[in-house]
Amino acid sequence: MTRDAFAHPAVPARPAVSAVPARPAVLAVVGAGPRATGLLERLAASAPELWDTARPLRIHLVDPHPPGPGRVWRHDQSPLLRMNSMAEDVTMFTDASSTLKGPVRTGPSLAEWAAHPELHPPYRPVADPDVRAELAALRPADFPTRRAQSAYLDWVFRRVVTELPPHITVRVHPTTATALTGPADGPQRLHLAGRTEPLEADLVVLTQGHLSATPTEEQRRLAAFARRRRLRYLPPEFSADAERDLNGIAPGEPVLLRGFGLAFVDLAVLLTEGRGGHHTTGPDGEPVYRASGREPVLYVGSRRGVPYHSKPGYQLQAERAPLPRYFGPERLDALADGAARRGRRLDLRRDVWPLMAKETGYGYYHELFRAHPDRTTLDWPRFLAAYEQLDWYTPEMRAFVAQAVPDPADRLDLEALDRPLDGRTFPGPDAFREHLLAYVDADVARRSDPAHSADLGAFYALLSVYGQLPRLAASGSLSADSVARQLDGWWHGFFSYFASGPPAFRLRELRALSRAGIVRFLGAGLEVVADEEHGVFRARSASVPGHTVTATTLIEARLPQPTLEHTADPLLRRLRQSGGISEEVLTDADPGADTHTGSGARHRTGRIRTDPGDGRLYTPEGPHPRRLALGAPTTGRAVAAFARPRTDAPAFRQNDTTARTLLRALDRMAAQLPAQEGVVSQGSSAAV
């Protein structure tokens, strides 16, 4: 089988119904979480156009975790853990903003479903009474528990399956895929844990989502040190899985947490409220932490040294800015063409970031001038006319914005936002603590006050930029360093810090934990060493020179990196060992050349290399005609499997393209064999 199996037909019309019994086609999907559910929804959407109703299509889902929620969003996790999105900002369904080849099929957001779940078939009461009570009381602006999201994803999966046409069936195999074999021109054999016979399929799609990782060399070194010294070291892990590893931490024990993002927030909750403490409301209306006495002492620091910005707790006061404006497909194509003409690859910070920043500024100032004109000296049309003509990083732009926006607090300064502690030092930990608490207070106040709704305008613009960047990365016009270090490193970190932080109440609780002496702040530029002489972990930061702390437990408060070299997934490990999968390795060859070969500096991103168009899985020899991959660990770089409504989510676009590719390829494969001589599945499974 060649790559022609993936070619689009000249006329993409629905195949004619044959009078001869059709050979069934078989599709296997490894991973049954939100990404797989989204792919199923897109298969159902395009099937009326692209699939012969006389031909059965059998879809097999393989995942040891519940279909729909998958591993990360499964019900079996602490009820203390919450999403960092409001209920109204979570959807699994496409809408009018979605730019798709297939049809849009709308559906309720989490908030809309929770308000009246009985009105959305297939209705089934949520089994957990606590989750039922939460859903009944859930308001659109609430931040739900992850168990509530699990219930929503369970319902979405069941709805998608029941809406499939009768000739498309789904079977769930609650086990782990361990290996994938089979020739490129024949059936693929998916080997499953606990099964003697493999599952055979025409095509296989990998949608495992976020993956655990085996330890890196540094992590193995730290773990070995901890074992020798009877200490404790916890490598990066997902919060739902890390809880069991926290039980051995003693009350009052000094614990270092390296990382100040969402993983830290979860760990702090599990080590405080999860130990029996609770928050009450003080006389000033702010949280006061009542300790149980079983909490450890938590020392936290990171490269940036401050927590992620809280999620805005308000809505836009004006209409949403029409995005993209300066950073859309046409401009990205022009950037790529210009790089090819000059024979020089683009540097993200030098060549691309100014446009990304201008797009972010457009979203910010659109809201400021439209919703809060009393704080500007120009009307919006006059401001926009001048803004159009100016580049972001110029003295002229700075002078113009200063004249049009008198209060510096109303101006967007992305550099100051990115590294708020750069160049700042403090005489001691108490002085730094007071500074950081004031920083947190200011952030919570700003993200809770609709007078600052321009921040939400910037947030939407950043979402738009995020959705466009995979197109630029796939074009091959970015330098290898720009992709490996800047796009996957600096940019992703900045986006998460500004736009993907915790609810404001979590930062209020952080302040209460600090006042209770449970959480203590270390600062920016955190350095942690294994002190062999004294048998402890020792930490210091650039923010408080000369100050060090020691601890008996070190926790990496971050998620595992999706690297192919260190993946803990048995299927991916075996594919890597056998040469059946290819890691993205970038070099700075000439524009237009294959960036995965050639001379020059090489950057290993750790991502699974896939075709930027339809997700075909690359082997060292090229794209595989019968295997595809989607999601977080791939070079598709559209991480979120669900999205805010009305944001044209890139994951939905990827799902749509891949689903239509699958239907066309499966139709061709099935048509090439005699009727009723298709591959068959073996082993027991759960029918849906």
TrEMBL record:
Region annotation (Disordered) ranges: 585-626
Pfam families with a match to the protein in the record: NAD_binding_9
UniProt cross-references to InterPro entries, sorted A to Z: HpyO/CreE_NAD-binding, L-asp_N-monooxygenase_NS-form
Protein name per the record: FAD/NAD(P)-binding protein
Species, as recorded: Streptomyces monticola
Residue ranges of domain FAD-dependent urate hydroxylase HpyO/Asp monooxygenase CreE-like FAD/NAD(P)-binding in the record: 28-210
